[in-house]
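Progress report, Aim 2. The chain analyzed during this reporting quarter is listed below.
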Amino acid sequence: MWEFDTFMAQPLIHFQNADILNGETVVIYGLNMDVLPGDLVYIVGKVGSGKTSIIRTVIAENPVGNCSEATVCGFDLVSLHKRDIPFLRRRIGVVFQDFQLLTDRSVEANLEFVLRATGWKDRSDIDTRITEVLSAVGMGTKAHKMPHQLSGGEQQRIAIARALLNKPAVILADEPTGNLDGETADEILLLLQKLNSEGTAIVMVTHNRSIYEKFPGRVFTCESERCTELVDEGIDIDF
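Predicted structure tokens for the chain:
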């Protein structure tokens, strides 16, 4: 594991000539990608182009294929032991399109579940952290609510709060506005942009062109079994 000062100088996510798998099938060949602290990165492309497979590889849900190098938050994905995957995932926050909240328990209990699953034990520390993250996403009064009592936008804010619990270096957002109306989607994007401006790297999967036009960042496009960064302004993406 890296020392803190070295960690800050290194890419949070680093792929060099890496094949990305979906099951046993290669969906992207030779991925080269560096995500640095504070970056805002979009991964765009048509459905089935491999966008989500990259996210699954980053969180070690999918194994990495042939590669020169593949590291995430200091963990080598090639040699990563199964017992180390939870420690990797503590460095990453993940936000899904469908929220994935536990419907049988309150907002507070949802967040407590994640904290206890990642090693938190002290009741006072847990309560303090839950209060902090709910306040950060503007949901400080919703701890007692059940998920079904919240709007879609509120549920996504809770999902972002959940992603923040362990103070991640990077948040992976997989189509985070896909189930939201336009106005609510903008609110969620503004929240993610605020977190990014405060230093958290954001990697967002989307097929919505208007998002990265409204909130500019680095753009990687997945097409024809490749994922490459767009470096020239004015390039039109056809999907």
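The first strand starts at residue 13 and ends at 22. The radius of gyration is 18 Å. These observations will guide the mutagenesis work planned for the next reporting period.
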